[in-house]
Amino acid sequence: MILVASQERDFVEWHGGCPTALVWALDLGDPALVAQVVAARARLGDVLLPRYERQPHVTIAYAGLGPHEGATPEGHLYPPESLVRDLDLLRGSGIGPLRVEVSGWDTFAMAPYLGADVPGAADLRALLLGGAEGYVPHVTLGFYAAGADAATLHERMSGWDAPSLGYDVDSLTLFSYATSDIAGPLAVVGRLSLADGTWSPAN
Question: Which domain of life is it from (predicted)?
Fold first, then answer.
């Protein structure tokens, strides 16, 4: 596989002035998993961009850009009525709490990741996006830097004792992140209980 470097810049052409984007994900902010992500990033070193501040999570579906007056985005928007629609879809899905098993590592062209086995995750993604073809649940370790190559990647990760961690996740979280910062942290917008459908906004 040829690794593709990311650019740490403000992709104005995508967001057009919308300051935030939103994503549905499973929040896995457990200290043991955080430690494993830190350990993997330390092994990879300069193979990765030096900064990645997003807490461990499994993305279910990208929702869209938060609307902003005067913005001219190329990407699609996620207005309040879309959130109402998605909450109705999710509540009617019959999908309950999920079991997440994190183990091993692999890579996409632009990012290495820890594998995540999540029965039911593809069903949630299909519900929100209309399909789940090619979906690979994962915990991202970061983004590749310029000059990264597959040989160095595998050399750095050779012999690494990959984590084997399990979690029962009872909520689906809507996160936001700053569109100007591809490696910035996620902020909780709200959580939907997968047990009883209760929506709990962060504010």
Answer: Bacteria
Check which CATH number belongs to the domain holding 194 and give it: 3.90.1140.10
Q: pLDDT band at residue 89, thresholds of 50, 70 and 90?
A: very high
Q: How many domains does the chain have?
A: 1
Residue 88 forms part of a structural domain: yes
Here the tokens at position 173 are 């979280």
Q: Please list the residues that pair with 140 across neighbouring strands.
A: 113
The answer to the question of residue 50 being in a domain is yes
Asked if residue 13 belongs to a domain, the reply is: no
Residue 32: its pLDDT value, please?
94
CA distance 58 to 103: 13
- Cα(39)–Cα(35) distance, rounded to whole angstroms? 6
Cα 169 to Cα 29: distance, rounded to the nearest angstrom: 11
What digits encode the pLDDT tens for the residues 56-86?
A: 999 999 999 999 998 788 889 999 999 999 9
Q: What percent of the chain has a predicted confidence (pLDDT) above 90? A: 86
Q: Which long-range CB contacts under 8 A does 84-91 form with residues at least 24 apart? A: 86/24, 86/128, 87/192, 87/199, 89/127, 89/128, 90/124, 90/127, 90/128, 90/172, 90/192, 90/197, 91/192, 91/197
Confidence band of 43 (pLDDT split at 50, 70, 90): very high
> Is 89 within the bounds of a domain?
yes
d(C-alpha 178, C-alpha 95), whole Å? 30
